[in-house]
Structure formats: structure tokens, C-alpha cells
């Protein structure tokens, strides 16, 4: 759906600011609680909490993250879910979101309604109140920036730092080819992240957004390299489909494609991997794969992720 | 300073994402704490707190909130300060900020350096760590969206709701003509807001961003009108200067111009106003003016704010 309209009567400019805000409240419905816990005051208010607070921000920009081929509801769902994936990547759970919208006055009211209704549906299904936001004009532009506040379940937020040489490297789900649909249909791994944060032998955690080859650098301890078992990498069906269309292998897609939104984490070398994996399977249907370990030098036969590149945002 | 450059070597695109993030860390310096309390993980982490949390978000957009005539440092300072003003408007104090940047790859590195150095300077002077953020591409665009997390000092965040018929209406500072410079040079009224939240006879509070005439609606109780004393409205020198240039009166500017970033609040009718004002003057040099009260019907001789209009964002 094209977000802009040449017909002034169908555009945001015909509503004006106050009526637009009233419409947004209506579209969000129960997804936005009464002020000051929802839209309508200078700040949104969240009740006090005993846990560390988590904050993440991600935008969707017209022409970059979505185009006319993506339904407005799906744009909104993705915006919230990519932020939820960041909360999952710390082992936390979400508390509330605020959304800043920058738009050309020619944006169609119908597009915007679908966007907010999609946001409300996703917010309800993940239990995330939309607590506030901002609307501003941007000539020729359309971008929505969502900030998500979450909190750690226990005293610990699981970060990217903490892996040691010898740690096992794990990944959830299958990788690559997200562009064929997964980048909209993915499920943020909130329950899995929270379970991992509760286990002391899990030492570092992140979500995959720019491709395994690039993202793995963030977990790699100093003076270590990831020795990956090429045959173990869980390649998605979409990566295999893409490989048939272009000159790149399915493995290359699995290591290089962005927007997997799967979890990547490390487990202490001493861990009984079999018991760990059994405990996982009792709890989750989500696929879990050990793809290698951190070593001092590249192990014989191991795959070097530096031979692959990840997604570059500013090219 | 023009933010875009035709010379690729001077542009953000020549840095690439990883080097750009490294540069941003350098420019921010001590304004960004070590990860996970600063840039570098999936989420920023804030320590647990016993107080209600406040969240506000505001952007600056090229072509809307700033242009080539505004130094990049001033753009960043304004971005943080307008969010600080929202925290002040709840009687809170700031905890941390995250910033999402959307930019064309042709944005000049020099502009961006000045922007982040300006952000760092303002963040340091208000004690606000820059805890995280995001960078994304937006063809032809340049926008920065800052989300500020704060907290109430005590159990109470002072909201826009709570005024009753008979309440006195107060405003800090002087109003109007912000466009002549105040919109960059203003001081967020954090200490004043916090002091007001501690007083039980202060019943509602907000900051003025769209002009008194428009913003006052948000505080007005049901079945009440604000009866304003025209002669009492504190008119800024800038509003008088503007009035000499255009066909509108200085009073019109004081009621209609946006971006005053002053506090507007109400005090219970029973309050000893003289004692209240004396207590204020002992604590603050900031000008304080009682500009009227909420009544059932417009008092004889009172000024009707509906005869004036405020700033309309989507026109």
C-alpha cells in the first residue's frame, strides 16, 4: 500500500494535529492505557520496579525498511517485534513503548490507520502498552521510531560480554534468506531469552540482526576466534531458495543475510551440553544448534566467519 | 552549517557503520558510560530504582526544527533540552537518553561530529548519560529522535490532570517570540518542576511548547474556563520586538508562539498565594506570575485564550 496520497481530503493534513491524535487513540484502543500511563501527558509514567530497566530504540523508514509492497500493519508489527527481539537479547521482558512518527502531510490517513491498528494488535499480543509518543512533520519522509522499555526478570540482564575461550556457541532457529518473508513473520524469542538469563552457565547473549558472520564479533572474547562447524550451521529453507536464484551458496546466505532475529549465545565449556539441550527441548519447540566454540586459534576444518560479510547499514 | 556534502570523502558513507559508531563513542566521550550502561549492547541497562519512571520522546528534523543557519551543536542541545523540559513538566529528574539517527549517507562527518559533541556537552551539564541509540539510513533525510528516561523524585509524578475550578494559574519566565533565539537558549525548568511536585497544593503541571493559548486546554478542568488577566501575562522582550515587525500584538505573540519551554501549573484556591510566591523567590530567581484562575464562566474583563491560536504541527 502506497503511504502517500495526492488527494488532500484523504491525507493527514486534512485532520490537523488534535484530530489526528484523537484518531490515533481510537486506532490504538486498549493498547494505550489511560494517561499518565498512556498518551496525553508530557511524559509517560511507568510504575516503580525492583528490576534493572532495559531501553532499546529502532526505527522503520520508508524506502529503507519498507516500501509500497508491505502492508502498513506488517510495517508496524515489524517495528515493535524488532525492538522486542532486543529485549529478548538481554533476557528481559517488555514494559511499555513510545513511538515518534515523522511524516509528510501527504501521508494517507488510511495508511496511518492500518499502521496504528497493526501496532495495537502486536502490542496486545505481546502485552506491551503504547505509553506515549510524538508526531512531527518531515517533508517527503515517513519514519516511525519506537523506543521500548523493558526490564530484567531477575537481578541479571544478560549482555554481549562474558564469553570465555572454550565456550560453546549456540543459535536458535534457522538462518538466512530472511528477505523472502521471515523478516516480517519472525517471533521475538522472549521466553527463550528469559530462560537463558536464569541459567548461570549461559555467559553472553545477543540477537542476530546483521547476519551471524558480522554479529558474532560482538560476543568474541579478546584473543579468541570463533571456530564454527560449517556443517552444523542451521540453514533456512529460504536461504536454500535464494541460493538457487543467485551465485551465492546457501551457507553464505545463512552467515551473511540480516534480520534473522534469532538468539546467539554462549555456554560455559564445563556445561553438560546434552543435559542443557534436553532441558531446552522440554521447554521449547524452537530449534537449538551448537555451531562451534571460541578457541585461541582457528581449529582445523573450522569455518572462518571473516570470510563472510554481514549487512552494512550505511552503504 | 549545511549538513550535507557532495564530497564523498567528507561524508558519513566513507566511514561505514563500524567506524562511524567508533567515532560517535569518541565524540560522546564521558557522556556515554561503558556498556551495558552505554552504547554497545542490544539494550541499554539502567539500575533498578524505587521511583516511578518517566519516558518522553522528541525529534529534531532537518527542514522542520533546524536548517543551515543553526550550528549542529545547538541542534543537539535543543534536542536534549526539549526532552528535559518534558521531564521538568512532571516534576522529575533525568536518568538516561537514547538517540536514533536517520541520515542520508551524504551527511558530512564534520556536521555529525559537531552534533554529537554538542549533545555530549549538554548531556554532561545536565548529568544525563547517553546510554544507547541506533543509526539508520534515510535517503535525503536527517532526523534525530531522542528518548529520555527520567524518574519522579518522590512517589508522585505531577501530571496535567488535577486542576479544579478556582485554582490559580501560574507561569514561569516570559512568553512569546521564542523564534528570535529563546528556542535554543532556554533552560529546562528541572529544579522548579521538582520543587512544585513536592508541594501538595500544586495540582497540575505542564511545559509550554505550543503556546499558552493552545496548551492551557490540557490543564483546564471539565466545565471550566481559564479566566486570564490580560495585563498580567508576562510578555517577553522578543515578543515585543516581533510585534513591531508584524501586524500582531505582543500579547498575541505571548499567547500564540510556540517553544516557550516555561512551566504552566495550577495551585489550589485555598493556597496563601503571597506565602507561596515568597517561598518561590527564596528558592529561585526564575520569574513567577499568576495569570488568572479557572472559573465556571469567563470573568468580566478576562481574556479568552480561544481568541488566540497556538502552533499547529501538521499545517
UniProtKB/TrEMBL annotation, chains A, B:
Q: Which InterPro entries match?
A: PurM-like_C_sf, PurM-like_N, PurM-like_N_sf, ThiL-like
Residues annotated as binding Mg(2+) 1: 58, 134
Q: Which residues form the PurM-like N-terminal domain?
A: 40-151
Record SUPFAM superfamilies: PurM C-terminal domain-like, PurM N-terminal domain-like
* Binding, Mg(2+) 2: 58, 86
Origin: domain of life? Bacteria
> Which reactions fall under this protein's catalytic activity?
thiamine phosphate + ATP = thiamine diphosphate + ADP
Residues reported to bind substrate? 65, 259, 311
Pathway note: Cofactor biosynthesis; thiamine diphosphate biosynthesis; thiamine diphosphate from thiamine phosphate: step 1/1
Query: What keywords appear on the UniProt entry?
Result: ATP-binding, Kinase, Magnesium, Metal-binding, Nucleotide-binding, Thiamine biosynthesis, Transferase
| Binding, Mg(2+) 5 | 210
Pfam families registered for this protein in UniProt: AIRS
Residues that, per the record, bind Mg(2+) 4: 42, 56, 86
Q: What does this protein do?
A: Catalyzes the ATP-dependent phosphorylation of thiamine-monophosphate (TMP) to form thiamine-pyrophosphate (TPP), the active form of vitamin B1.
PANTHER family per record: THIAMINE-MONOPHOSPHATE KINASE
Protein name from the UniProt record: Thiamine-monophosphate kinase
Taxonomic source organism: Rariglobus hedericola
Amino acid at each position: 500500500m502506497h503511504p502517500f496520497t495526492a488527494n488532500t481530503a484523504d491525507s493527514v493534513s486534512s485532520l490537523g494535529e488534535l484530530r489526528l491524535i484523537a484518531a490515533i487513540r481510537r486506532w490504538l484502543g486498549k493498547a494505550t492505557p489511560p494517561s499518565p500511563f498512556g498518551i496525553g501527558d508530557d511524559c509517560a509514567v511507568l510504575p516503580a520496579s525492583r528490576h534493572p530497566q532495559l531501553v532499546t530504540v529502532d526505527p522503520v523508514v520508508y524506502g529503507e525498511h519498507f516500501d509500497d509492497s508491505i502492508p502498513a500493519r506488517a510495517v508496524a508489527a515489524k517495528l515493535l517485534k524488532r525492538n522486542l527481539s532486543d529485549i529478548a537479547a538481554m533476557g528481559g521482558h517488555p514494559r511499555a513503548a513510545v513511538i515518534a512518527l515523522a511524516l509528510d502531510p501527504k501521508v494517507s490517513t488510511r495508511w496511518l490507520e492500518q499502521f496504528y491498528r497493526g501496532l495495537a494488535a502486536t502490542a496486545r499480543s505481546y502485552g506491551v502498552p503504547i505509553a506515549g509518543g510524538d508526531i512531527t512533520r518531515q517533508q517527503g519522509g515517513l519514519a516511525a521510531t519506537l523506543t521500548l522499555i523493558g526490564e530484567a526478570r531477575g537481578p541479571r540482564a544478560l549482555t554481549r560480554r562474558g564469553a570465555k575461550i572454550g565456550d560453546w556457541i549456540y543459535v536458535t532457529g534457522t538462518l538466512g534468506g530472511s528477505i523472502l518473508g521471515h523478516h516480517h513473520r519472525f517471533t521475538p524469542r522472549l521466553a527463550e531469552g528469559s530462560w537463558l538469563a536464569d541459567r548461570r552457565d549461559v555467559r553472553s547473549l545477543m540477537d542476530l540482526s546483521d547476519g551471524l558472520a558480522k554479529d558474532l564479533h560482538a560476543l568474541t572474547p579478546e584473543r579468541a576466534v570463533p571456530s564454527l562447524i560449517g556443517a552444523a550451521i542451521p540453514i533456512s529453507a529460504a536461504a536454500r531458495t535464494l541460493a538457487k536464484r543467485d551465485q551465492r551458496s546457501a551457507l553464505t546466505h545463512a552467515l551473511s543475510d540480516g534480520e534473522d532475529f534469532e538468539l546467539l549465545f554462549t555456554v560455559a565449556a564445563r556445561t553438560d551440553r546434552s543435559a542443557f539441550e534436553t532441558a531446552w527441548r522440554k521447554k521449547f519447540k524452537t530449534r537449538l544448534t551448537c555451531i562451534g566454540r571460541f578457541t585461541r586459534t582457528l581449529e582445523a576444518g573450522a569455518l572462518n566467519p571473516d570470510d563472510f560479510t554481514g549487512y552494512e547499514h550505511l552503504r
